[in-house]
Amino acid sequence: MAVLGAAFGLGCPLGGEVAGALLAKAGWVDFAFLTWRMWYELAGAVTVLTALGAVVGHLLDEIAAHSEQLECRVRERTKELQALTEFTEAVLHRIPSAVLVTNGQGRIVWANQSAFRLLREWHLATDGSPSLLGQSGLTLLPDLSAVWAQLASVLKDGQVRAFARLPVNTPSGRKTVRCTLAPLRRPDADEAVLIVDDITSEEQWQQQLVQSEKLAALGQLSAGIAHELRNPLSAISTATYCLTQALSEQNALSEPAQRYLTVIQRNVERAQRIITSVLAFARPSQAEAVPTDLNELVDAALDIIAKEAERRNIVIRTALTPLPLVRCRPDAIKQAVLNILLNAVQAMPDGGTLTVCTEHDAIAKQVRLIIADTGHGIPPEHLQRIFDPFFTTKPPGEGTGLGLSIARTAIEADGGRILVESEIGKGSVFTIVLPAEVPAPMHREPVGAWMAHR
């Protein structure tokens, strides 16, 4: 029995001593039953554990597979999010509006490429300047103080603020901008987006449109008044002539009477010239544009002002180089050139030098006429107005203020433009640019040959 107990104890967790004690007490049959039952229960427990292990293994496999799927989906979503972020930034960088993102303290934390470009155009930033990030918006754009003052309110109430027109003074000149300040909610911080649009050109176009409408109305009014004035002026001129003839026939034309009648006739003629100028402004020439040698028009205009220039001790220097023909209305362009030349001569009452030259830009397909004087110059505050109708700085009775306006209207009607530069005490430079049409004639002096005009 001890041997059986020992043998059983080798395979039973109860140990050999426990098995021997059970066998001695219970007998062989009971011992066998007890042994069978213990092995049966042990086998069941092993089976359960084995099944449980299989289930746990299967669950672990499923968890691992699911985890791998999740990792793949996370990687895919991360790529999609990165692509969406890159797309969003690309869109923001390519929109023409300047976009600045600021934190609650008004410091710039992000800016698109348009913002950098705009600030470079305004000379507020350069390619070699430090990054805008971290700078104070108020320090960078102090003229937008009204916008920055609303930052706290925007972050607090979440409402968008719009600013239609704000002036900004920059080293490159005065600009006009339109701004929008909007909240940008983020889980970790409250920020704001500032959108800035430079509407300087847009405002200039609007002003030009308004000016054009005013000029059109003024032209119609002037044309009507000029037409109505011509009849009484003609009557005055005719009456003056008849009175002069009648007094002469009666030998009653005294010297004072002759002087007064001459004054009347001279002022009637001046009034008629003014009316002609007003009508030329109100009703531009309808002549057909034809290929024309600009140099020939300049020569003709110089011949007209030559005597007056000589009387004022003005030296005329010319360099009219070979030019392609330009398609224009010759009489209108000749009158425009003549008006500019007369202004140049009148700007040098004590003498000076009048320089007239032409040049051809083959790349741009343009011809240029440059008229420079050494007169008193044009004040900066007048430069923007010299082409306005009836604007003049001459004393009363010495000008109508229509010469340059008529000149610009004629030049622009033929597809050209007129530019002006001036400096007080040094003189002015007017440049007429017209589109070239056909190759240049070759009968002119070589480029660079300066000649005194007679």
UniProtKB/TrEMBL annotation:
GO terms for molecular function: ATP binding; phosphorelay sensor kinase activity. The gene is zraS_3. It catalyses: ATP + protein L-histidine = ADP + protein N-phospho-L-histidine. Residues 224-438 form the Histidine kinase domain. InterPro entries: HATPase_C_sf, HATPase_dom, His_kinase_dom, HisK_dim/P_dom, HisK_dim/P_sf, PAS, PAS-like_dom_sf, PAS_4. It comes from Candidatus Fervidibacter japonicus. It is an enzyme of class 2 (transferase). It comes from the Bacteria. Its EC number is 2.7.13.3. This is histidine kinase. Keywords: ATP-binding, Kinase, Nucleotide-binding, Phosphoprotein, Transferase, Two-component regulatory system.
